[in-house]
Amino acid sequence: MDGVLQFILNSLSLGSVYALFALGLIMVFGILKLVNFAYGELIMVAGYTWFVLQGTLLPLVVVVLVAIVVAAFTSVVTERVAFRPVRSNSMNAMLITSFAVSTLLQNSALVFVSPRARAVDVPVFFHTNINLGGVQISVSNVVVILVSTLTLIGLLVLMQKTRLGITLRAAADDFRMLQLLGVRADQVIVSAFAISGVLAGIAGFLWISRIGSVSPTVGMAPLLIALIAIVVGGMNSLSGAIVGGFFLGTLTIALQLLLPQDMLAFRDAVIFAVVILVLVFRPQGIVKGRFATERIG
Amino acid sequence: MKMPSFAVTGRKLLPLIGIIVVFGVIAVITTILGIPLLDRIMTIMFINLIMVLGLQMFMGNSGLLSFAHVGFMGIGAYASALFSIPVAAKAMSLPALYPALAGIEMGFFPAMMCGALIAAAFAAIVGYPLMRLSDTASAIASFALLVIVHVVLSQWSAITNGPRTLFGLLKYTDLWTAVTWALIILVVAFLFKESSLGMKLRASRDNVHAASAIGINVVRARWLAFTISAFVCGMSGALWAHFITSFQPGAFYMTQTFIVLTMLIVGGPRTVTGTAIGVLLVTIATEGLRAMENSFSVSGVLPFETVGMTEILLAILLIFMLAFRPGGLVQTIELGARRRVRAAAIDTSEAELSRKA
Lengths: 297, 357
Prior knowledge:
Chain A is mainly alpha-helical. Chain A has helices spanning 2-32, 39-53, 60-86, 91-112, 139-161, 163-173, 175-180, 185-211, 220-233, 238-258, 261-264, 267-281, and strands at residues 118-119, 129-132, 135-138, 213-214.
């Protein structure tokens, strides 16, 4: 019983971080149909902001908020400087641009901070356990689940109740129609990048508090995770990203428990093989979106 | 399979001859100067030329973005190494090797061909379903393929020595081996583009529905090109491996993909001459920047580490190119094939097409 509960908690905690990763990636994908390879670097930026500010005696909450703002700001800047000029070009040009932005940010961290991993001070209470009715629950799991639930609720309210959210959902469905109705494309796209950055910041904080350090390539794993999650979950809807994230989180924990030690090394290869199979046999993913319109220019 | 028919007239051959002369002269000058560093840089450049031409054959003609080709280069490198490392050295290089493979030792050429064939066979097997996918999905799938190849290369310790350095290769590749193969592949890439298969692919690139409508089997054409280009990339991997002689799986991952894509995009993926010029220019830029990087880090003028500056500047260059000249330097008409008036007309119609795609 204890093991089952532990498994569920671990899966929920990992799955919710993965869902946030996937949501951040799909915010941009939904509108531009662009897989933003530089998305992982936003997480890296958040991590380095945390690393730089940890010596300043600011309370952790403030540091995290600043990190989120910096990630969102970086996301908006990349849109303005790199993605907007190539938006009217081919899909390949956009994908390669995002690859270039990713390399640019990674190497900037390498040059201006350090090629080596730097430790961040994760508060000690994160690693303690609390006893809840005879079951040991780690504080970090509780924090992760709480933060990501709050974020998900916030995002849900934003997308369902506000004018911005309705615009964004409409843009994901049929961007050209939206433009015909007089909505400014640039504003919609910038807000998508900003929300993507905020999600990357929050998820980045949770991810880096898990790992305990930040390095120039720290964004690689989250990018791959988000990529798998949106492909498996479904690329045409936000719920697809959430489903994909939780599915992947559960699968990861399960494989960790079930796979023999010498097979564990190939876990990522197995997961990526699943991605290709899904793309070939069920390209719409688990959750089929209502619309799949062509890309906008 | 019938022989492909070529529509190559004397005039169309001019760009090819021009580019071969340029690269031949570069090779001769390098040999005459005899500076070891220059020799090394140029050898790597010619190997990269083969790699980028391999990618161009698929990407330039089919219009599909592929991240996977550096993975094929890795397969070619590791597979050829497996066949060429002397039996005596194998126990040291690959302590966990399967006994069935431990006794194999080949010369360089057969080992290279085996490496390239294995890369092509792998591409042929995994490639067929991927060729059905549309642009975004195929890009993601090829990216997934690159990750899979990387994970397998760095975990299958028995035949790759895992994430550790693989050593014990003999240095078979020198400047002129690389030059010879690069010039051969230049001709191959050029003929490929003008072959019936190349034309079918280019037709499918410009309008996939029209191409299917006139009876082109788009999936099959893409698949053949994917396999052939994987063969070329595998060959470049084998040449590279026997030049560097000790390497790790990390050599065939994101950094190399970035450099290869930069070369292709800057030069112009749709033309062979453009691709070759891209390789040349990016090599000059990279090596110039590296030299500056080194002198800065030695003199300590700048208050930060300078390793990585080259990639930053290359990335900026790439973004600039994509924003202001997305078709590369040589866009659709091979350099030297002077038909300026028609070139302009074709350019605009192609730009229109890619906007709609």
